[in-house]
């Protein structure tokens, strides 16, 4: 429901004839984002009795599968790279998946070359963004500016600030002292992301990559 429900899939599932559909999100039920989502559904002629709502659901918690009913299809995008522990989060998602999982993450190409320098990433690697050197940060910053048109106000230093940056909009530590799910934590290589899915018993049936920046996978749960 973040980004004002721009990418929600509940309305599409209902329109396609799903027997049931539901939205789950980490935000509490009283959040303005939830109210906006329900209003959007109502505006599309979809009543509250046509879908379920699961508020306060954290994908990183091991009790995720116990807090949700079983779903034949689970759609979860725009989440993994915000998780400090994406391996555990994906494992939890698999446990909540009856058969099909649609998932994505932000990736880093195996090699980036631009005026700021070169950044190479082995097939089995993932970049831990808080650990970027200044030289690596320069290469990624320029790539996002040139390749994706990110402005200086919304760039690498915004979504992946240096650790301890005062007043960061996406800090690594939450106000309660826990780990924050706001910043970008990880950039997987394409092959590392595929390997993670397969390691957790998810067979990749189809995939799509957007601008060598986001990789999507349609996975079938094996067993």
Would you give an account of this structure?
This protein is an alpha/beta fold and about 220 residues long. The chain has helices at about 10-15, 30-45, 65, 85-95, 135-150, 155-160, 190-200, and strands at about 20-25, 50-55, 70-75, 95-105, 110-115, 115-120, 125-130, 185-190, 200-210, 215-220. Strand 1 (about 20-25), helix 2 and strand 2 (about 50-55) form a beta-alpha-beta unit.
What's the total count of β strands? Answer: 10
Numbering strands along the chain, what is their spatial order in the largest sheet? 3-4-10-9
Question: Distance between the terminal alpha carbons, to the nearest Å?
Answer: 30 Å
Order of helices and strands: HEHEHEHEEEEHHEHEE
**What is the radius of gyration?**
18 Å
Number of H/I helices: 7
Tell me about the biggest sheet?
4 strands, mixed
Q: Which geometry do the CA atoms define?
A: globular
Helix content: 25-40%
Beta-strand percentage range: 15-25%
Low-confidence stretches: none
Average residue pLDDT: 95
Structural class: alpha/beta
Secondary-structure map:
Elements: H1 10-15, E1 22-24, H2 32-43, E2 52-54, H3 64-67, E3 71-76, H4 86-95, E4 97-106, E5 111-114, E6 117-120, E7 126-128, H5 134-148, H6 156-159, E8 186-188, H7 190-199, E9 202-210, E10 214-221
Parallel strand pairs: 1-2, 3-4
Antiparallel strand pairs: 4-10, 5-6, 7-8, 9-10
Short précis:
With 223 residues, this protein is α/β, with parallel strands linked by helices. The protein has 7 helices and 10 strands.
Question: Which descriptors apply to this entry?
Answer:
223 residues; alpha/beta; globular
